[in-house]
Write a structure and sequence with these properties.
single chain, 195 residues, mainly alpha, Arc Repressor Mutant, subunit A, two-stranded antiparallel sheet
Length: 195
């Protein structure tokens, strides 16, 4: 019985019999020790080294990145002799890396939830130049009051009942980065709709 393959061992309801557990273990060990049987452990492939440009393209395929952000990510993987700035210049020349596209993408992702101050601060932290920020600020300020009202409506269903609740709701909008003027316009509209 010990020389039988594991498939031929007696089974009871799909499980090995308890009395034959030692025998079945010995049979399994004998099968595994068989030199004609292929190795059951898979062979590991060697790690493929990805070039900086390949890594940058992988990052850019997921979402837009600023030059500063991509430089920081690539610097971790750069080997001696690799020039991160040359890779970034090549990507910009091929129009695969663009600060304006990154800015548009970030504004589009954040505008529905955050105010101008927070969006502009995040753009500044990504190294976007001040000329581009002025243009973005002008675009964002056109509808900041409406965006603030929409954010308020998603969070609160009723106007504030007292000054304490009003202050709490105003702080919420301030933390989201809305300007004082946009916050005042929200509460002005709420007072007018309550009349």
């Amino acid at each position: 019985m010990q020389n039988l393959p594991a498939e031929k061992l007696p089974r009871k309801h799909g499980k090995l019999k308890k009395s034959n557990s030692r025998a079945s273990s010995a049979a399994r060990l004998q099968i595994l020790a068989d030199p004609t049987r292929p190795d059951p452990t898979p062979t590991l492939m060697p790690a493929i080294k990805i070039s900086l440009k390949g890594r940058a393209l992988r990052y850019l395929s997921a979402r837009e990145h600023s030059r500063m952000e991509l430089r920081r990510k690539l610097a971790r993987h750069a080997q001696e002799g690799e020039d991160v700035e040359a890779v970034l210049d090549a990507l910009e020349a091929a129009k695969l890396l663009s600060e304006s596209r990154f800015s548009e993408s970030l504004v589009h992702r954040r505008a529905a939830r955050y105010g101008n101050s927070r969006i502009l601060l995040e753009l500044r932290s990504h190294g976007i130049d001040s000329d581009a920020l002025e243009g973005i600020r002008a675009e964002l300020s056109e509808d900041e009051g409406a965006r603030a009202m929409e954010v308020w409506r998603r969070k609160y269903s009723t106007p504030p009942a007292d000054a304490i609740e009003r202050a709490r709701q105003m702080r919420f909008l301030q933390q989201r980065g809305f300007t004082h003027g946009a916050i005042e316009s929200v509460f002005r509209a709420l007072r007018q709709s309550a009349r």
